[in-house]
Amino acid sequence: MTFAFATLQYESGDWDSAPLVPANVVDSVARYTELDVAPAGVVVSLSSRDVFRYPFTYLTGHLPVRFTPAERANLIEYVDRSGFLFIDDHNHDIDGQFHRTVTDELTRACGPMIVLPNDHALYRAFFTFSNGPPTTSHELNGWGDNLVHKTLKAVVRDGRIGVLYSNKDYSSEWSYHPENKRFLPVDNTKFAVNLVVYALTR
Amino acid sequence: MRSRVEVVLSALALAAFTVLAIAAWMPPAVPHFALAAGHLERVLPEWTARPRAETLHVDLHEQLSPAERDWLAALKWVGSAVTWNGGLPVAAVEAERESGNGGAVLARLVAAAAARVVSRDQLGTIDSLESADPAMELRLPLVVGDLAVEISGVDLRQAPSVSRRRNVVVLATAGWESRFVIAALESEGWQVDARLRVGPGIAVTQGIPLPLDTARHGTVIVEGAVDRQTATAIEALVRSGGGLVLSGSSGGLEDLAPGRPGRAVRPVGGLSIPAARRDLEFRPLARVAADAEALDVTGGGVRAAARRVGAGRVLQIGDEDTWRLAMGSDAGRREHTRLWSRAVAFVRPRDPATPTVGDDVAPRAALVSALGQPGSAGGVRPTAKVPWETLAGGLLFAALIAEWTARRLRGRA
Fold first, then answer.
1. pLDDT tens track, chain A, 202 positions
2. Do B175 and A1 touch (CB under 8 A)?
């Protein structure tokens, strides 16, 4: 069994706005764990049945999101069958188009999200993040809504996270070539390892 | 000389009279009784009061009450030869209230083929059916009070015991397979402890998976290799009655495995999203041990095999990536859950049931356990005994005649 990082393609919006994230996450998972991970990410359409081959998926964008009926139906089934979907707001803006539309779609498909407590198992799945989700440089620089978001949100099914939602713009934070990690004093993709390990173990 | 003979004869007559008097004062011995059920309530006290009861045969045409059965067993225990015969139907029930599933009751039934089975609770009839297999399982979502089951006219009743299943331990490398197996088992109410290896010396744990403890753990599922220390602990658990399910290579446990996984076989026309278990890739089990039993054989080879190791059981499954079933469809998810729940149920040790006063859940089995297999009345042989009363009577008569003759002949010789 090989873990594959799958980016969700959807018809509305710009699903491919963070093209370097998959390679960077794959690099970190391979660097810190002994998990069997596919060397490259894959792209899978949310409206395709192939989405059920990938229990871990990633969805991002800047633009308004409106799911087609097929996408919405697949999303409902995907979460019901223990899939793990990580959605990140690439705008880092709680009043932005992406945030408002995608949370509206999520609520329609999966029900309301809850605020994930900062002592959740997600933050100890591999590395320990005592204060909850790590802050991004884009939050500290005052981009987007000029807020530091203290928590993440989630759709929880049977005690497990089905959808993890972030306004912190990890899509910008992690979208760089993996080789450039050597220039960073602290690897900022460590939290991505937690996401993958949590999805594979909970 | 004659007077001495007469004295001896008088003594003999007196002794024989004494024996007869004692015999008349004591109740007579009954060598063999044949009774029918239904009369036992009246007869058993009388029978038990006899000091020299030796053999008793009961022809059963109806179910014995637990009290009657226990009474007969007690008689057998103190030395009476008790046998029984009759056409009691095979009927047994075991009801367990599951910790998950909203407290649903799982009823395991034993019945003859085509027997009529009716289940009831405090509120009335729940269901009725005709048995297709000698052993059946019924999952009853709601049972109020005791569960009553009628099988071929035999009424059985049990207060469902609360499940005291010991935990399942999953030892694996972190991955979709172990993650979906845990989710499937938990959805069926199993308590799962897990140790999922993530990195060198790093593992994600759930519950207390190690050290293995027979008081807490009943079954171990291993996917991938285990170290020698863990393998030794697993073998000890299995030999003492625990269960083991092997999936994938399961290195380090070759001595326990029923077979060796071979090269992966992809089903012809296999789907990337499997609709059923037959669509899954699997590794046929080769070199199946002589004492192992192939449980699932398909065109490609042995898909599952099991063997006993000590007091425990080991099941090996050749299916690869069964999680694809769970993700593929709702039917696949149910099949995946059923596959793993049954695998664990197959090998898990039977937890001791909590006895409930008044339960009579397997009357025929209880009768065989108490009195032995049914046997005919002709098989009962009274214990050989000396007819002391007859001998004493004959001796008394002979002694009196001899003494009378001696007296009559006195003075003639």
1. 689 999 999 999 899 999 999 999 999 999 999 999 999 999 999 999 999 999 999 999 999 999 999 999 999 999 999 999 999 999 888 788 999 999 999 999 999 999 999 999 999 999 999 999 998 888 877 777 778 889 999 999 989 999 999 999 999 999 999 888 888 888 899 999 999 999 999 9
2. yes
| Whether B176 and A202 lie within 8 Å, measured CB to CB | no
CATH at A89: 3.40.50.12140
Cross-chain residue pair B204–A49, CB shorter than 8 Å:
no
Q: Which residue has the higher pLDDT, B12 or B227?
A: B227
Neighbours of A165 (CB within 10 A): 21
Is residue B169 classed as helix, strand or coil in its secondary structure? strand
Interchain contact, A3 vs B173, CB within 8 Å = no
Q: Identify which of B373, B380, B372, B355 has the alpha carbon closest to the alpha carbon of residue B77.
A: B372
Domain count within chain A: 1
Q: B183 to chain A: which residues are within 8 Å by CB?
A: 82, 158, 160
DSSP A49: G
In a domain, A1, yes or no: no
0.90 exceeded by pTM: no
B99-125 pLDDT tens trace? 655 678 888 888 888 888 899 998 889
Residue-range definition of the domain harbouring residue A165: 6-201
Within-domain flag for A65: yes
pLDDT digits (tens, 9 = 90+) for B260-292: 998 888 776 656 788 888 888 889 999 899 999
Residues from chain B that touch A55, judged by Cβ atoms under 8 A, are: 176, 179-180, 323, 327
Nearest neighbour of A1 by CB, restricted to B198, B199, B321: B321
Q: Which of B181, B310, B303 is nearest to B242 (CA)?
A: B310
Q: Which residues of chain B make contact with A45, given a CB cutoff of 8 A?
A: none
Contact status, residue B315 vs residue B306, Cβ threshold 8 Å: yes
Task: Provide the token pair at B138.
Answer: 């019924």
Question: Which one of B181, B188, B204, B273 would you mutate to disrupt binding with A, by most A Cβ within 10 Å of its Cβ?
Answer: B204
Contacting residues of A for B179, CB less than 8 Å apart: 55, 82, 199-202
Contacts of A49 in chain B (CB under 8 A): 273
CA distance B272 to chain A (A): 7
Task: Tell me which chain B residue has its CA closest to the CA of residue A36.
Answer: B175
Of the candidates B103, B71, B108, B90, which has an alpha carbon nearest to the alpha carbon of residue B353? Answer: B108
Does some domain include residue A147?
yes
**B364 CA to centre of own chain:** 11
A81 assigned to some structural domain: yes
Tell me the C-alpha distance between B46 and B44, whole Å: 5
Whether residue A160 and residue B183 make contact (CB cut-off 8 A), yes or no, is yes
Instruction: Establish, for the pair of chains A and B, how many residue pairs have beta carbons separated by less than 8 Å.
Output: 77
Give me the long-range contacts of A23-26 (CB less than 8 A, separation at least 24): A23/A177, A23/A178, A24/A174, A24/A175, A24/A176, A24/A177, A24/A178, A24/A181, A24/A189, A24/A192, A25/A174, A25/A189, A25/A192, A25/A193, A25/A195, A25/A196
